[in-house]
Amino acid sequence: MTAEHAVPAGAPASGSLVVVRVDRDRCVGSGMCVLTAPRSLELGADGLAHPLRGDAGEEPTDELSEAVEFCPVEALAVHSAHDGRARDGRPAAPSS
Fold first, then answer.
1. Virtual torsion, Cα 67, 69, 71, 77, nearest 10 deg
2. Residue 84 — left, alpha, or beta (φ > 0 → left; ψ -120 to 50 → alpha)?
3. Which SS3 state, helix, strand or coil, does residue 4 take?
4. Nearest to residue 23, comparing CAs of 63, 66, 78?
5. Percentage helix, strand, coil for the chain under 3-state DSSP, each rounded to 5
């Protein structure tokens, strides 16, 4: 591995970062995701969930996984920030 491709010790590999997507047509603003993953999601002025980091990517966490799992209307999905694929291997859905 060359120096320009080396990952500093303790830093996540770029392929491990994720982006959370909110299906705004499904989200009902229950707030379960915000309570579960407050460092990743917030409720906006419209009452719907919004990712705090947009497309910047973040390290995957247990809290974020639980937020996706607990969403009562399945409005959340986690995708690779590197290639856009859903964490379960499905191709990324278009952003809305």
1. 80
2. left
3. helix
4. 78
5. 20, 20, 60
CA dihedral 40, 82, 65, 13 (to 10 degrees): -90
How much is the pTM?
A: 0.73
Long-range contacts of 84-88 (CB under 8 A, 24+ apart): 84/19, 87/18, 87/60
Beta bridge partners of 79: 19, 86
* Distance (Å) of CA 6 to CA 2, 72, 82: 6, 41, 16
- Where do we find the tokens 């603003």? 29
43: tokens are 């409720």
Q: Which helix (H) or strand (E) is 35 found in, with range?
A: helix 32-36
pLDDT digits (tens, 9 = 90+) for 20-35: 999 999 999 999 999 9
